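<goal> How does this chain fold?
<sample>
Here is the protein in question

***
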Amino acid sequence: MGDRILFVEDEPEMLQFLARYFSRRGYAVTAAASGEEAWRLLSQTTYDLVVCDQALDGISGLDLLRMIRETDRDLPFIMITGAGTIETAVEAIKIGAFHYVTKPFKPGELAILASRAVEFGKLHRKLSRIHADEDEADRSIVIGNNRRILEMMQTIEKISGSDAPVLIQGETGTGKSVFARRIHETSRRRGRPFVTIDCGALPENLIESELFGHVKGAFTGAVRPKRGLLEEADGGTIFLDEIGEMTAATQTKLLRALQDLVIKPVGGNQIVAIDVRYISATNKDLHQEVAAGRFREDLYYRLAVIPLYLPPLRERREDIIPFVRNFVRELNRRYGKRVSKVDPLVLQSFMEAPWKGNIRELKNVLERSVLLAEGAAITADCLSPSPAGRGVADRVPKHPVSLKTAVEAAERQTIRSALAAASGNRSKAAEILGIGRRTLYAKMAAYGIE
């Protein structure tokens, strides 16, 4: 069954048209000709969205919204208003409406708005269920819905039975270490050690010792022998984070370990056989590093048998809402908070932010927001103290009258997402959006989308 929408409209022709239009798009539609009938229906079943005309006899649209908000803070509500009642629309937003549309409106535009409202409603309900299955939450964080991420997961599944070295490239904060662990957990080595070494955090004189170990007296301070992390990871997986920071001398030794499956501790003569699977990660373009002579070409090809590229968050915006949902759940548990709602305009600003720090930056902003939230909702006021959050907060409209701009921005992003999902096929994208091709072409031209 599709998502449930309750339409409340006292004009029979309009009510019949909306019911027929949205039913054809897969929604389970219920029609109510009055506020009283709508309230009775709401007491009998649950809905994913209410779309209600403001000008109703008896219980008005605003009255119905107030009644709903007394018992349900999360049910999305879209108000239909007349052209001369913008003040009513603003009042509806203050009470808790998701958005409003002004008559006359285009059904395709309402369909896009309804889709986003349903999506936000689902997010808020999931935030409220903080004791949901943790495995599902972790899976959502890693996978998301981005096509390139799903293709990466398919690749990971295909290589789960092999020990082929994997190189993960991507900007800082994109989740390379999370994917490295996922690769380990889906491999035949999942019951063995997963050992991480940050090649960029260790000074040059220590990284060799950390990787290969050392014998007593190998250097000043080596008062006892030490097993290297490659030996500690024997039988499991070694994750070399920021491999692009590794010195030339260490690269040579690592290449030998990859080729010969043995290592020699620093200062020692005894070789040690190792059995590890290599996963590496870097935020650098190793092709450029090889061309510049800063990274060994032979080592690159040894490490990049399976090359993976993690796209930045700005290229996988459809995954922002799942990230928000899971991070808020995690932060609620950590800090004993009860945040269960994110203001729709804040979510919209999240969708539009550049996120130069990627997922790590998003989590930082959310952590600060959850801590500063005074009630159950994250609002724009929770964002400003954070340097990263200020950039997000600046994108949140400060006055309800600017909501039209927010809707246009949401529409622009929705069209881009549909085009991406349709691999650029405009006819398919128009079908996904529920609008005609000419309408799509006109909107693309208006928004400058190529």
